[in-house]
Amino acid sequence: MAKYIKFLVVGIIFGIVLVKSEAVSWYRIYEMFKFESFHMYGIIGTAVITGIILLLLSKNFKNINGGLMTVPKKAKGLSRYIIGGTIFGLGWALSGACPGPMYILVGTGAFSVIIVILAAILGTFIYGLLKDKLPH
Q: What is the pLDDT of residues 54-113, one digit of tens each?
């Protein structure tokens, strides 16, 4: 159990950063979807650029198992990304929360998000039942 403390600490720090940057604010998300503010686009863009840089750097370093990190090639087909992105975006717009910050919102006292978390768990369960029938 003690080996997981570092992940808890990183999660708490990540939650504090998201709350302080207002990335979990329903109003900021609403502004983003109405194209009224650059705030969320700036946060998301910064995260994407940081992720690209860290991914490129991590390919040169050994992981905790002693091997180099590899990124498998994705299957081609633009429609699957458009459909998946649309479903994700609709869920985000309807709930006002991305999957990661849902738990942070509960920590800030927005207990109504528990309904969204339960719906996300149900959606994951349904995907697990249907995954063999879906094109991957």
A: 888 877 777 667 777 777 777 777 787 888 889 888 887 787 777 778 888 888 888 888
H helix and E strand count, the chain: 6, 0
Closest CA to 98 of 14, 38, 35: 14
Distance (Å, whole) CA 76 – CA 67: 27
Q: How far apart are CA 36 and CA 3, in angstroms?
A: 43
What pTM, to 2 d.p., does this model score?
0.62
10 pairs with which residues across the strands?
A: none
Residue of higher predicted confidence among 11 and 77 = 11
Tell me, what's the pLDDT at 2?
82
Intra-chain end-to-end CA distance of the chain, in Å: 35
**CA-CA distance, 95 to 132, in Å (whole number)?**
28
Three-class SS of residue 68? strand
As a whole number of angstroms, the distance between CA 41 and CA 38 comes to: 5
Other CB atoms closer than 10 Å to residue 113's CB: what's the count? Answer: 23
Cβ atoms < 10 Å from Cβ of 109: 8
